[in-house]
Amino acid sequence: MRFYSAGRRFFENDPMKKFAFTLLLTIALTVAEAVSPSLIAYGHTGERFPMAAPSMIAPTIAKEDMLESGDRIPDYLRVMGSVSPTAAPMLAKLVRTMIFGGTISPQTKLAMGIAVADALKTPYAAAHFRRLARNLPTNPEDAGREKLAIAYARDLTGDIHGVSDAEFATTKARFNDAQMVELTMVTCFFNYFTRLTAGFGLTPESWLESATPQLPAQKANPYAPARVTLLTDEEASATVELVNAKPTNNWNIGIANSQRAMNRVPDLRQAWFGMMMEMREGAIVPRTTQLQVSLAVSTLNGCRYCTLHQVLGLRKQNVDVAKLVAMKKDDRALTAEEKAAVDFARKLTREPSRVSDADFAALQAKFPGRGAAEVVMQTCNFAFMNRFTDGLRLPSEDEAVKIYKETYGHAYEK
User: Model-level pTM greater than 0.90?
Assistant: First the structure.
């Protein structure tokens, strides 16, 4: 059993032991860089962030989450490994779960991913998705379902409100409620992943076309014959866990509607929020700056649900109402650091393929080291969340509606 996987299970219920374990891995990476710079180095020409060596990353990845054999570690995991010792295993779990978890076939999901990557002109992500798809057997889904799934992904990628009521109803006629949530989450994930890899300027690895991936076994969906969506054991257990969980913030909204919806596909929800929460624990970018980034992305995308959440979060961080009101007009109320983060986030949101080395260097000038990576990840998080919440038309919680109206004197207007 791999060291990190065993360690994570041993420490996960003890915050102090988990902190010590994370600190140990951090020290190991730091010492490795000092002793042998080749263990933490930049990859191919054009990449913008240092990468941990494969030998430093491989022991941290749980065996079931490893999609490569031998010493091959994809560059997206090497970048994350240099951000945080816990980031690479969490991203590996997220990638594996989004593609191979749930009940929709990975063949259909990868067809969606290819469509998203091509639409956003992100060749690194497209190359990885095509390679995985080539090495899978024939899709057990019928062609009609796959075609609907691809159209759904393209429409939601082009605009967070891009799936019309008629198109949603047509797709839902071939997928049950839980699978509609899954289709949406998977589309959101591909929008996250394409921007993440584009933001870091990754180019396809030299071994990508010649090496065969190590893919998990496909599982049959035992609930497929039912005419209604059955509550699975996993969903029931995850619901109990969600209800009993302590709040992670002081927002006074109880269980967020986004989590209620995602819990229809519990393995995907746990992988997604696991990644988000893990990265938030060790963040060095101020929480107010992170919320400014997600507010800028949500405003640009016209996401009602997430805009209300970010305003609520900023108010809970004691950001002045006058500043929030001024920000609706222009960026002059932002600090220099906030402005740099917001400018980068807007470009990565609009046109991920056009983010340049100069754009990333400008971001790093204000956020050196891990800070720049955190801005990239926060931007990508809301490429996901905007499409999920407004794409499914989730209602805003009462507290978010109230605080928004108190702040601006009126209800949300797009």
Answer: no
